[in-house]
Amino acid sequence: MSDTSVEAGGAPVARRSMRDVVFGLATAAVSLVFALVVIPAFISVPASVKAAPLSPAFLPYVLTGLIGLLGLVCAAQALFGQGVPKEDGEGFDPASGWFWKALLVLVILAAFCWLPESFGTLPVAIFAMAVLLVIGGERSWMTGVAVAILVPLFVWLFFTQVAQVPLPEGPLEELIAL
Amino acid sequence: MMENIGLGLSLFFTLQNFVAIGIGVMIGVVIGSIPGLTATMAVALALPFTFSLPPVTGILLLVGIYKGGIFGGSISAILIRAPGTPAAACTTLDGYPMARRGEAGKALQMALYASCIADVISNLALIFLAGTIASFALEFGPPEYFWLIAFSLTIVISISGSSLTKGIISGLLGVLLSTVGLDLVYGTQRLTFDNFNLMGGISYIPLLIGLFAIPEVVEFYVQRASPLNVSSSDKSRVSWAEFKRCLPTIVRGSFIGVALGSVPGIGATAASFLSYGEARRNSKTPETFGRGEIKGVAAAESGNNGVAGATLIPLLALGIPGDVVTAVILGAFMLQGLTPGPLMFQDNIDLIYALFCGMIVASIFLFGSGLFAIRYFARITDVPRHILIPLVLMFCVFGSYAVQNQMFDVLIMLCFGILGFLMARIGMSTPPLLIGFILGPLFEDNLRRSYLIANDASVFVRSPICWFFIAATALSLFIGLRKEFQSARAARERAAAA
Amino acid sequence: MKTFGRLLAAATVFATGLGLASQASAQADDYPTKRVTIIVPYSAGGATDVLARQVAQGLTEKWGETVTVENRPGAGATLGTAQAARARPDGYTLFMGQVSSHGIAPAVYANLQYKAKEDFEPIVWITEIPNVMVVPEASKATTVQEFMDQAKGKNVSFGSSGTGSSIHLSGEMFKARTGLDMTHVPYRGSGEAVPALVSGNIDVMFDNLPSAMPQIKAGTIRALAVTSAERDPSLPDVPTLGESGIAELEGFEAKSWFGLLAPAGTDAAIIEKVNASVNEVISGETFQSYAMNNGATVVGGSPEKFEEFIDAELDKWAKVVADAGVRVE
Fold first, then answer.
1. φ, ψ (nearest 5 deg) of residue B247
2. Residues B427-465: tens digit of each pLDDT
3. Element housing B240 (H / E)
4. Are residues A57 and A115 in the same domain?
5. Do residues C190 and C55 share a domain?
6. Residue B227 to residue A4, Cβ atoms within 8 A
């Protein structure tokens, strides 16, 4: 995609095949657990099932089996294959502190899942926007504040007023209903 | 006959109809371009308004929204990698890389050309072949559907990206995820982990947004250098040579769309992926697909818009809605006291002709409002990235919520966002997961229905249609796998030589 | 102006950074003072949704306050119903109940997340539609008796719009009463099942009358009987199952119905007001012609009438489910 994907040299290849071995074996292990524990526990099969393919658990078992098998294939390919130097996706070139930034984005998304009920969607959106602007590198306070308020306000108005989506408003509900 | 056409024309040529189509297409394009707000929703919201309109006007309004919506989805798919409608998911594969290369304008234009051409072809199929196609579509019983879906699933091979093994795992995972929810036959819970919200299954649009758009958002914050070099003045345009190069792809995609659209229940998303898979398979340079190949955009958009007119075939000819949108349009007919089906061709043929005229006009309007929309929407790429990305995130969150008005769907989006990000890290392609998720229920339902009807495996070879799709599936598997192995070997040899 | 007012209100909140929620209690006399929502447990465009939107539009015109429809589909209507049951009982969230949520589902699903009786206050019964027993054009049967004769000793498949739907349960009821060997083949919605019937992939179906009507009119499927107690005005020549002359089918009645409910605890005065308004809306010309075009019979009446009817339905389906053995644990 971008030019960063043109990576060459032995080290990344070896690392990548190591990663594939781990991924493949992990997939196989998870599939095994899934087939032995999860499916029996969370798919109930009625006694009246006439043919095997009619069972609710039939396809899940087949799929889990195939996934596990392909996990092993994937690991085998990485171990015994000729070390095909395929470029997969973009090169990953993390910025300093990337892990914390990624975590922060996830926390913000999680906030969207649980906070709007108690604080209202719009305040949460404004707060999220502000945080993201800061870690995104907004320099100017003036623009930052203006964007952090106006952009969510616009999106919120669009969804609630034009598209008539009843976003949770928490304590603001009474006020907005005026 | 001529007299009926004359009546139809006079029924159609009113200012009101033109206004209805124009408004419909424009609403469709805008709603379609917003992730989470789908064409279906827009059509359903507009339904009550049609009650007070004359039948032709009301239905054309809905058809306009539908067509506009399917194209509109490609706008956000290309610009921000968040497909506005499910059917545009495939457009992200090459449209978004093009936009990142600074060719957003070109990608949007190609999407529009492909959409409009497919739309016209689809309309023509509807007008001239409705009866024939419709009776053919009725030949599809559960076993025939089963093999058609099996064949469609083989496109996973073509969209697996760099690792075929992982691509197939991704596809299987998609099918597995689609089994979550209440069991179709027995009504028991499957993999819901006693979570009430999962009883209806994993919602599709949050999954889609999470898988495609969220990794892009996260990527922006964690990458050292912004991987983007959008030229702020995007002047890229589709050249005549490029258009000519894509035309066969567009025509093929349109026919795939028509074929899948006229069989009830398959839908635009599958058609766009199938068209994309075919385009890649027929390409001399399949490795360019997924990296901003303009043919990829053409294939995806012609596939999904080819469906738009064709889904009306079973509706008008048989009175059977092929998807949710046409089910709503059927509702509109019924509200007007009209019953689509063979009888309508006898009793209200003037109305049918008027509708046909309207659909042709809708294609033209789609082109016009598309050009207009592109001009303004393409400017989104001028917005500074660090402002655009949070805005995208906001649309993703609100859009996921809007699907069923529940925060649980935002959580679904978050989970699939994480999954999508991890999959990108380990070089596992996400489109197969999506295809598996869409086709999985069709695959399983028809497998089980076949057994219920016949209680015997011989039902799977009961008709020529079955044999045809069994052969097609086998052939597609063979050719697809051989091609992947060849290109893998070529890549190895290149690496060895280097 | 209203939008501007809301905008202003919203802007004020953000300018000051704090919102003081006014505790406006819902008074019956000035109800409604803000947007009212009707929860529909099916996706947009379905029969329930279209009906709810008709009612919502009528109420909006009547009250001058917006009444919106909120679709909360999933899990055979039980998802949206459970959410409605937990809504604040202030009269601003109403629920479009139907035969699934307040008839069949409580009987079929053991672990339901709501109580059909205790969690809801019935407001008004709106419409009902009969189911109709239909066979493909190619079928030789022209009466229920002929159908029975041909089906004896064979395995017959009956389609439905999904497990636990009224279409499915009507079939189960027929199967239990006649003792025929019948296999249920579920589809996802009538839209999928009807083509399967037209093409003869399934042998019979007890479809809702409106979704079968286009095909009956076109002659691609044949109506053998309606499942209501009386003949339907739109199909005057088609007998009821009770009239079919088969002893086991006497008194057979299965129909789909729709009505408005509120979460339990809603002010009785508000319920009275909504009941009166809805009764006015559904007796209006717009709604009457809508109902006629959709093969529905308008019912209306008091909350008590609706409540009695729901009780009867719950009892009836509990028996059918127990007889057919389709309860899901």
1. -55, -45
2. 899 999 999 998 999 899 999 999 998 878 889 999 999
3. helix B240-262
4. no
5. no
6. yes
Contact yes or no for B409/C79 (Cβ under 8 A): no
Q: Look at B186 and C163 and tell me if their CB atoms are within 8 Å.
A: yes
Residues B335/C293, Cβ–Cβ less than 8 Å = yes
For B378-414, what is each residue's pLDDT tens digit?
777 778 888 888 988 998 899 888 877 788 999 999 9
The predicted structure's pLDDT at residue B448? 93
> Is residue A120 classed as helix, strand or coil in its secondary structure?
coil
Interface test with C, best of B189, B192, B204, B404 (most C CBs within 10 A): B404
Burial B266-290 (b: 16+ CB within 10 A, else e): bbbbbbbbbbbbbbbbebeebebbb
Q: Is residue C11 part of a domain?
A: no
3 state SS of B123: helix
Of C75, C184, C219, which is closest to B182 when you measure between CB atoms?
Answer: C75
CA geometry: angle B407, B413, B414, nearest 5 deg: 95
Phi and psi torsions of B392, nearest 5°: -60, -45
Of the residues A48, A80, A112, the one at which a domain ends? A80
Pairwise CB contact (< 8 Å): B404 & C109: no
Q: How confident is the model at residue B234 (pLDDT cuts 50, 70, 90)?
A: low
Q: Which of C217, C249, C281 is the last residue of a domain?
A: C249
Give chain B positions within 8 Å (CB) of C199: 138-141
| Sign of the torsion angle spanned by Cα atoms B256, B257, B258, B263 | positive
Q: Are residues C199 and C275 in the same domain?
A: no
Indicate whether A102 and A169 sit together in one domain. Answer: yes
A80, amino acid identity: F
B394 neighbourhood in chain A, CB within 8 Å: 125, 128-129, 151-152, 155
- The tokens for C206 are 């007890």
DSSP state of C242: G
* Residue C16 belongs to a domain: no
Closest-CA residue of chain B to A22: B426
Whether C8 is in a domain gets the answer no
pLDDT of residue C25: 43
Using a CB–CB cutoff of 8 Å, tell me whether A17 touches chain B: no
d(CA B83, CA B88): 5
Residue A133 identity (one-letter amino acid)? L
- Report domain extents, chain B: 2-491
Structure tokens, C39: 């929860």
Give the CATH number for residue C262.
3.40.190.150
Number of domain units in chain A: 2
> Has residue C260 been placed in a domain?
yes
Whether residue C124 sits in one domain with residue C135: no
Strand partners, C214: none
Residues of chain B in contact with residue A39, where contact means CB-CB under 8 angstroms, are 191
Q: What is the 3-state secondary structure (H, E, C) of B413-439?
A: HHHHHHHHHHHHHCCCCCHHHHHHHHH
**Within this chain, do residues C199 and C143 fall inside the same structural domain, yes or no?**
yes
Question: Which phi and psi angles does C83 have, rounded to 5°?
Answer: -70, -40
Query: Which of 296-355 (B) contact A at CB < 8 A?
Result: none
Q: Which of C6, C7, C21 sits opposite A171 (nearest CB)?
A: C21
| Domains identified in chain C, total number | 2
Q: B181 and chain C: CB distance < 8 Å anywhere?
A: yes
Chosen for mutation from C12, C25, C33, C34 (greatest number of chain A CBs closer than 10 Å) is: C34
Partner residue opposite C6 with nearest CB, options A44, A174, A176:
A176
Domain boundary among C249, C267, C291: C249
Q: Which helix (H) or strand (E) holds A148?
A: helix A141-157
- Same domain, yes or no: C259 and C292: yes
Mean pLDDT lowest among A39-43, A140-144, B41-45:
B41-45
Q: How far is CA B100 from CA A2, B160, B178, B298, C103, in A?
A: 9, 21, 32, 17, 54
